[in-house]
Specification:
This protein has 283 residues and is an alpha/beta fold. The chain contains seven helices and 16 strands.
Length: 283
Amino acid sequence: MGPSIATSESCTERVTERFDVIVVGGGHAGCEAALTAARLGLNTALFSLNLDRIAWQPCNPAVGGPAKSQLVHEVDALGGVIGRLADATALQKRVLNASRGPAVWALRAQTDKRQYARQMLQLLQHTPNLALREAMVTGLEVEGAENGGTDGGARITGVRTYFGSVYAAPAVILTTGTFLGGQIWVGHQSMPAGRAGEQPAEGLTEALEALGFQMGRLKTGTPARVDRRSIALDQLEEQPSDAEGRFFSFDPAAWVESEPMSCHITRTTAATHQLIRDNLHLT
């Protein structure tokens, strides 16, 4: 799909809806951005490829950890919701680096990904000034983009979707995450995807490049999924929750204590290491 840029004059008569702020992408960052804008009284729209996957956490549904827990606390202090929802949906909490000084302690929670997504969607649906739209944003409406937007005079005026609908807004926030031109590899096979089984966000990469942005690509790894029923848990090391009374949110009204679950630890062996060394040339 080629770059999708249009001047505001060319799309004025075919605008589907108008907003003050448009947020593209419904992950952690997108949800926080949309909620914040709406709470500030701005008419806001959050676009997602699939509203059933709003705030859907990846293979490891964890919140916090080294450095990240500090960020979650700070987002909460600024009025964000990730800490509150992590506390409400936590299955297990642990304090990492507990053997070291308090300066490096980090709270980490394993959350119920289905409950987390469900509660976030309910919060978004009941927030005034916030509209949810299920569509793939493929292009940017830009005023003064005749020269590719490289002369400094370009101004965003909205977005365009895959099926040609135009939504106007003087501010657009892109929070597409791994879905932006996403590609996954399984062994030697590759396919376009945001997550396994979910389509990527197409078109925006080309639109940004046409405006002079330099694009790169990041990589993340995904562990294999294992059926819990196939694991002999009694032969593994149990790791219970050890963070009773600790929360991400500073608001006591948001504190929820639920029945904790244990994780179980496995370890690699010399045979595992040899298998990796033998196949490094394939990565």
